[in-house]
Write a structure and sequence with these properties.
single chain, 445 residues, alpha+beta, 4-stranded antiparallel sheet, 3-stranded antiparallel sheet, 11 helices, 11 strands, 63% helix
């Protein structure tokens, strides 16, 4: 009777633990990073000499909870982390290149419109160089051209600063995840395998890995106790010695890079995945486009200054430089009076210098260079958008495969709960029968 009572009691304990696991599954069905729990049961054996647990399954003497396991596969998790990092990289890159496309579109920047307005206005003024209204109108068009360059240069600078802020935040997020993983590693090493606590810690570990790989693609190795070591190329980010944080390095030329602090050394990192990779890639592309815009602004300045110094103004004085600035953001018209426009040349008609300006329009090809720059920015953005779509499709496929293993289906959990309740009731019935039998034997004696 004692064995019968033990069988029922152990069954009650085991099924109660299994029902608790089902309840945890239901409660966390929508919790990010949660993996479905299953309870593994094992027989409690009785040795031939009657000592319990002396030899498993020699005689059945009840059931016990062997372990609480997560429904999880490292290969599927690795696929999700890798594709998630690729998606974040593509998304970050597209976000910034789309912003650049907007700033460099002619509808927004209007540099092409301003350049055409200057040349077309020069043709109108050449037909009547003495018209004061046309002189003022043309001077205004030159000022508008400078304003268009300044607006585009300033706005690209603002995008550059915004990328820097986002990059700094991503590095901060990655470092926070590495620090949390170090703490989780320590807890995992002190936790019993197959326990509910181990499962919870592994869930927490995976959440932090998801955060980290979303910012930076890494290489991971898992220890026997579920702890993780992390590297990126030659750089160690997390090992038995603790976390090794990332550092953002900004160059005087506007370039940006990432390194890991390993002891006293900075080990450079060249990420290809994660939001950090997207920010860095966008920075490189933006710097190239900014350089082209600045070169165009400097050439525009040189072109119009050279034109002005080659002529004479309305009073016959030699023309002077009419633009100042070293880049697009600082290109400024310095001439304030229409009478200072050098429309003529010494000993030549009053529109001679204007005619020379128009004749060089196609040679300098300022409008075409701006058009090429604007089109290139649009192409970069379009290619980045295509990368986002491809990465998103791949990530959704990997996530669906992982969710099929780790996800919680409420219908399945309801059926499992019903089965466990019936088993629990049966175990309770066994205990009750054993108690009644023992009581009857005692009364009989």
């Amino acid at each position: 009777m004692a064995d019968l009572l033990n069988i029922g009691a152990t069954a009650l304990h085991s099924y109660r633990a299994a029902m608790a696991a089902v309840g945890e599954n239901v409660a966390n069905a929508q919790t990010p990073g949660f993996s479905r729990r299953t309870v593994s049961l094992a027989e409690v054996g009785t040795g031939l000499n009657g000592a319990r647990n002396a030899s498993a399954s020699v005689q059945f003497n009840g059931v016990r909870v062997d372990s609480i396991q997560r429904n999880w596969q490292s290969r599927l998790a690795g696929d999700v982390w890798e594709s998630g990092g690729a998606l974040n990289a593509a998304t970050a890159r597209h976000q910034w290149l789309s912003a650049v496309e907007t700033r460099l579109s002619n509808d927004h920047a209007q540099i092409g419109t301003a350049l055409s307005g200057v040349f077309d206005g020069a043709d109108r003024l050449a037909a009547n160089p003495g018209d004061a209204a046309l002189r003022s109108e043309w001077l205004s068009s030159l000022d508008n051209m400078g304003l268009a360059f300044r607006r585009a240069g300033t706005e690209l600078g603002e995008v550059h600063r915004s990328i820097g802020e986002a990059l700094a935040y991503s590095v901060e997020q990655a470092n926070a995840a590495i620090t949390q993983l170090h703490r989780i590693n320590a807890a995992l090493k002190a936790t019993e395998a197959g326990s509910a606590m181990r499962a919870s810690l592994e869930d927490a570990r995976d959440v932090q890995i998801t955060t980290l790989t979303g910012q930076l693609g890494v290489d991971m190795t898992f220890g026997a106790k579920g702890d993780v070591n992390i590297r990126h190329g030659n750089a160690t980010l997390l090992d038995g010695d603790g976390p090794h944080p990332l550092r953002l390095i900004t160059g005087d030329d506007g370039s940006r890079s990432i390194a890991a602090i390993n002891a006293a050394d900075l080990v450079p990192i060249t990420p290809t995945s994660g939001a950090i990779a997207g920010h860095l890639s966008a920075t490189t592309t933006l710097n190239g486009q900014q350089d082209q815009l600045d070169a165009l602004a400097r050439d525009t300045k040189a072109y119009f200054n050279g034109w002005s110094t080659g002529g004479v103004d309305r009073s016959g004085n030699p023309g002077t430089a009419i633009f100042s600035g070293t880049d697009a953001a600082s290109l400024t018209l310095t001439l304030s009076s229409p009478d200072g426009l050098a429309l003529s040349r010494v000993g030549q008609p009053s529109n001679a210098n204007l005619l020379a300006l128009s004749s060089q329009r196609s040679v300098w090809a300022l409008e075409q260079r701006w058009s090429d720059l604007s089109v290139t920015a649009a192409q970069h953005s379009a290619h980045a958008d295509q990368a986002v779509q491809a990465s998103d499709n791949r990530h959704q496929s990997n996530s669906a495969a992982m969710n099929a293993v780790t996800g919680v289906d409420l219908d399945t959990e309801a059926a499992e709960l019903l089965r466990l309740q019936l088993a629990y009731n049966a175990a309770a019935r066994v205990v009750r029968v054993a108690q009644e039998t023992i009581s009857e034997v005692i009364r009989t004696l």
